[in-house]
Amino acid sequence: MAIIDVAGVHMHVQRLGPGGGRPGGDTVVLLHGLLTDSLASYYFTVAPAFAAAGLDVVMYDHRGHGRSGRPATGYGLERFVDDLGALLDRLEIPGPVHLVGNSFGGTVSFGYALRRPDRVASISVVESEPATASWARKIAGLLDRVRHEMTVNETEALDWIATHRGGHTARLARAAGRLVRDTAIAAEVTDCDLVTEDALRSLDRPVLAVYGADSDLCEQAPWLGSLLPRCRTVVVPGHEHSVLVEAPGRVRDLVLGWIAENASPGGGDEDGRDTGRDGRRAAAVPVEVNVP
Question: In which domain of life is the source organism classified (predicted)?
Answer without folding.
Answer: Bacteria
